[in-house]
Specification:
By secondary structure, this protein is mainly β. It contains one helix and eleven strands.
Length: 127
Amino acid sequence: QVQLVESGGGLVQAGGSLRLSCVASGRTFSPNAMGWFRQAPGKERTFVGCINWNGGWTYYTGSVQGRFTISRENAKNTVYLQMNNLKPEDAAVYYCAADTDGRAIVTPESKWDYDYWGQGTQVTVSS
């Protein structure tokens, strides 16, 4: 079992930055790929980005490429999502997710390939 807790959300003006954190506890954390997803009101949960177990590989959806960066510190069981140049359309609840068996490396955009989810943290971007 893995428990994920996100933090770092809040209200920011367009063009600003936020860093989200996701702390994992429970089973061994380091071998897992980790993903970030977001869900705006009335919309489906969509993929933001993913990082492999050692941080050597990352993958992002096109709309955040060049603005968002995922990193991880396995010694702290923590994954980060650094978000720069935020836009109003980035506003959503952001969720981190853990993949336990490597499926997310093959199809990182599929939320069905992640086994554990956090409770989410709200990001609001004012224009």
